Amino acid sequence: MTERITPGDVAHVADLARLSLTDDELEAFTVQLADILDHAADLDALDLTDVEPTAHPLPLVNVFRADVIGPTSDRDEVLAAAPSVEEAQFKVPPVLGEGQ
Amino acid sequence: MSARDLAEAVRSGARSARSVLEEHLDSIAAREPEIHAFNVVLADEARTAADEVDRRVAAGEDPGPLAGVPVAVKDNMCTRGIPTTCSSRILEGWIPPYDATVVDRLAAAGAILVGKTNLDEFAMGSSTENSAFGVTRNPLDTTKVPGGSSGGSAAAVAAGFVPLSLGSDTGGSIRQPAALCGVVGVKPTYGAVSRYGLVAFASSLDQIGPFARTVSDAALLLEVIAGHDPLDSTSIPEPPADLTSVLDQGVEGMRIGIIEELSGDGLEGIAGDVRARLAEAAAALEAAGATVETTSVPSTVYGLSAYYVIAPAEASSNLARYDGVRFGLRVDAPTSGDMHSATRTAGFGDEVKRRIMLGTYALSAGYYDAYYGKSQKVRTLIVEDFARAYGRYDLLLSPTSPTTAFSLGEKTADPMTMYLTDVCTIPSNLAGHPSMSVPFGVGDDGMPVGVQVLAPAMGESAMFRAAAVLEAAAPPGAAS
Amino acid sequence: MSGTAPEIVPGWETVIGLEVHAELATATKMFSGAPNHFGGEPNTNIDPVSLGLPGTLPVLNARAVELAIRVGLSLNCTVQRSVFARKNYFYPDMPKDFQISQFDLPINGEGWLELADGRRIGIERAHLEEDTGKSTHVGGGGRIHEAAHSLVDYNRAGVPLIEIVGRPDLRGTEDARAYVSELRSILVAIGASDGKMEEGSMRVDCNVSVRPVGQVELGTRCEVKNINSLRSLGRAIEYEARRQVDLLTAGERIEQQTRHWNEDEGRTHKLRSKEEAFDYRYFPEPDLMPVEPSEEWIAEIRAALPLLPMERRHRLAGAAGVETSATALTVDRGLDDLAVAAIDGGADAGRVLVHLENNLADGVGHLTAGAFAALIALETGGDLTATQAKTVLASLVDEGGDPAAIASAMGFEAMESNELEAIVDRLISEHPDDWAALTAGDDKERKKKSGFFVGEVMKATRGQADGRAVNELLARRAAG
Fold it and tell me: What ipTM was reported for this prediction?
């Protein structure tokens, strides 16, 4: 199967997930995650050729709603919960680079 | 008094909703400082709601099937105008601008919301020790855990603070605390209860369900909250089964299978006293006219592994929105990227971070097939194995938890030890099937044991019938 | 697949593939009932779902699905079972920090689009996804108290988008512009989108690579983003093609990158390399169910489609007996219905097209197909000169009416043909030397002398003669 998860892997996923880890945390989490993934390795014993994945437990399809306008949020109520607001918009520190 | 009886008394005017409420608020005041079942108690709001119920009764109106019944709701279900924290620092003080569908339905049924209960942070845990706001203690022995993640909701009912509460169950988070606290806990069929307003942990596994002291009360609450919701695309379109009317129908002629792989012989770590109670439960069902035998559902042994890939993977995506931009905690930094990191690092506890990283890894480039892809296929095997079993049996049986309630701090050193407590409950989440825990006697330590009844999708009626039989036949419970 | 595209750099072929995002013309957003309209005060078209608040769930807009199917059918795609997927990345304009899109199984599979010149450009897929909010950077700009920051407006978050991915079948800037124009015409014709690049309801990302003319293997491509008009599209392609050629000519490799077009500076610069590309960790969206449009529904949608620009071109070409490329302008201006009706009504196809292309710049006004056909009959029958017909046409556009009556009211009597013959013959006899020069002279002389005689005829008839008819007469007389 795949190799054991390394501190480099953990540092990489922490970065992807926007989490900062101290060196001690990195070490501790690496051990814990490796243990958990080792346990998941017992799945390797199974023959999964020709098995379809299950994404949903329910066999529903075509769940739609009509294109009809519904209630909108009270802007003040929403902005009141925001950490920082300016000109009725959510204020954030500058973004480096583009999104996608 | 049962919830059913309370509602009847209030509707008939025999008792006022207000007096019922004050009685329960007194219980809370007496033991809540010791138990810490709640993140917030809403005494004033509850009084206003109770007074309104009384006014309606006096005006000749019917406030609903839960008229005047005090209820508690797990603090991961949105309540408009009332803080909803998921027991996390990242949502400390967050006030949702909308109500969860189940909260609407409780209100429409005349129930009185008394408080939001404590949980493992973002529903990730099996002991409520992962709460950022302090542990909840088992009311039957305050050195022990109530179970998790819905520990607060289970404890609130077990302690008599409320007759009914709502929890959420992703891998056993209703059933396991129910077993450890000696109350009834139900995970309905996936899609039976709307998830709109339930803060998502693992979307394809999460379900809201009832805690109650009796099977009948649990049925009552489930009937109130179940049913199609157009705001939830995963909501079952068909109307839910009627439960109250079938409760007394017994199990005569039913075929019931004890899942070998999850019971004593098949699985290490199921304690002797739990095995013994399970055997007695099987005997009780036989005495009531069912045929009970052991059966194999082989893939269930892989449930734990598949779950600990699928649930964290979905969670890693569901929890991305906690970024300090629109609501909740923000820790400032010079750039948005750094602000995201600083906020999430400060706001999430270790277990949440662990699962987010695990999930991110399982979905990341190069690893998807090996982990997430593979686990979703294992899920299919589990569904197929259950289908085969339900071809021969009406219901299945297993322990709910491998042991009775463990001590606070006993399993916190190693995450894997804690995860193993979910081994019996996880398979029905993966399959989307209903299952419930019914108190059945006590273990050697005098603490409650729960027996798990499992049913096929939409099989709640049969499940509740068996639960009622078990309840009637159960040996004495724990002294509280 | 090469047309005769002019080379941006001699000896090098520019290969282009375009990704177009178009906002769908629905009343509400993709996954909730918040309104979908452009403009408006910030954060007024939001609701808990489109804001991605904890506990909220998406429910798919049926009209977005219908419009997506219209787009797929119009682009000759296979409409197929599809599934939604989460595209995970952090950015402040993303409410959930993941975008719900389609990955493995898009609603529309392969298809093609036909350009005005008849060439087909391959379409790889066209799928549904939700739009993001908008962030505006507010610069520090030297003011001490105003640190740089961004402001985020979520009005646009959740607006339904269709992403149309074209194959790299385009060669050069003209092709690219033609493709975007044609695609826009289709989207507008079927009511799927208003296609306004300047408002952002249609956005184009451009994949550009170069290769020496004659090379079969494709060069390494770069993706260029932030193109906001057809003009920018052309400029960006030219810049990028030259940049790549310069690098290759200097012996360097092209690094596969995403680049940002800067309109003011007129250049692209690197955003990120392929290695730095986001790991989106796609997985199937657990909160949404698969979409399986029935054959009946697809057939209904297909039957309700209006004529597409390509079909209009073919139809007019068939009616007029010309190449499709000759009908493009008329179709583009929405005048083909009129043209076909007039031709069906007996009008001369050639004259129809000439008038439509040259004399109806401001639209058809009150002109009817019948009046148009009648007018052209008068013209081809020699009752009106081309100039007179143009004047009558203008009047028909302004006020409608009957062409013959209008012509009469304007005093346009066409010369009777024998009257005209008499005048020509008289002039020939009065100018024998010029006539001899015309019949015996070379082309240059003949032309000069024809001009002289036409001028004389015009003088004699006070401008009422039909120039063409005169030339025909002269030619007949000259032939003997």
Answer: 0.96
